[in-house]
Write a structure and sequence with these properties.
The chain is of the alpha+beta class and 105 residues long. The protein is built from 3 helices and 4 strands. It has one domain: Alpha-Beta Plaits (2-Layer Sandwich). Strands 2-3-1-4 form a 4-stranded antiparallel β-sheet. β2 and β3 form a beta hairpin.
Length: 105
């Protein structure tokens, strides 16, 4: 069962965080989104940049991961958004079952 659950992570501008998190949950693509404030440093278009962002940690089923990624691409304001899908190796079974139950069938 744990192999059926994944985390989808994405950094987003702080002013877009609530809108994106709400869309993911309300559309039942993910069961839960955690938003944590982070400072990101990266190269973009040949320059070193620093941005204050939110890191969204989304919990969903593996079979929905590509739908989550497509939806994020559609509503994310960045040209090249960070979207990573990370398998969950194990976890508290009732929580994993809750994730499965709260996402679209």
């Amino acid at each position: 069962m744990p192999e059926e659950i994944v985390l989808v992570i994405s950094t987003v501008p702080r002013d877009a965080s609530e809108r994106i998190a709400s869309a993911m949950v309300e559309e039942r693509l993910v069961a839960c989104v955690n938003a944590a404030s982070v400072r990101s440093r990266f190269f973009w278009k040949g320059e070193c940049s620093t941005e204050e962002e939110d890191l969204l940690i989304m919990k969903t089923r593996k079979d929905l991961a590509h739908k989550v990624m497509a939806r994020l691409q559609a509503i994310h304001p960045y040209d090249v958004p960070e979207i990573l899908i990370i398998p969950v190796l194990d976890g508290y079974r009732p929580y994993l079952e809750w994730i499965r139950g709260e996402t679209v069938p």
